[in-house]
Write a structure and sequence with these properties.
alpha+beta
């Protein structure tokens, strides 16, 4: 069961660094199974600046975004989710930035090939809100329900959380450049 939960987290943020360094467990409080800085929890985001703000009523505050850009960013997010749910690797990679700021593109692709082969996963987003906007960079907050099933058994895991997807504007549109996921307990 814990393995499927771990896989759900890894599927949410499948890319890691291409750093092959290994770590040694010395049985100290500082030990970790994460051998490098680009881990599955935050895609190695250097500045850790992605996030969102809530008002006193618990609503996520929306950024001021030109309507045409807001529509394009929301469409890019919808395509990111749809391509993942369809397990269409070519379609998924088409929405990933050529040079993401938070992960290695080639490693992300290799991890997803394996994940798509090993598990059936569905993302169901809600409360999508553009929380930061600049002409070349945007952040979209979403609540995310994730269901992971093993095709070899009836076992399934359902997990919910909040995600901030960082988009980067490229010549052919808005592309996913980084992800931050916060799972619910």
């Amino acid at each position: 069961m814990k393995k499927i939960v771990l896989i759900a987290g890894l599927l949410l943020l499948s890319a890691c660094s291409d750093n092959d360094a290994t770590s040694e467990n010395t049985n100290s409080a500082n030990d970790s199974n994460l051998a490098n800085e680009n881990n599955a929890l935050d895609h190695g985001m250097e500045d850790k600046s992605a996030g969102f703000t809530m008002d006193s009523d618990g609503r996520v505050l929306e950024a001021d975004v030109p309507e045409e850009e807001a529509e394009a960013i929301r469409a890019a997010h919808a395509e990111y989710i749809a391509a993942f749910n369809a397990e269409d690797l070519e379609r998924y990679m088409a929405v990933i930035a050529q040079e993401p700021e938070g992960f290695d593109r080639a490693e992300d692709q290799r991890a997803l090939e394996k994940a798509f082969a090993d598990y059936d996963t569905e993302y169901v987003p809600s409360n999508q809100t553009i929380v930061k906007y600049e002409p070349e960079r945007a952040e979209l907050f979403a609540e995310l329900a994730v269901t992971v099933k093993s095709p070899d058994s009836a076992a399934k895991i359902e997990q919910a959380g909040r995600q901030v997807v960082i988009f980067k504007k490229e010549d052919d549109g808005w592309k996913v450049s980084g992800l931050h996921f916060i799972g619910n307990q």
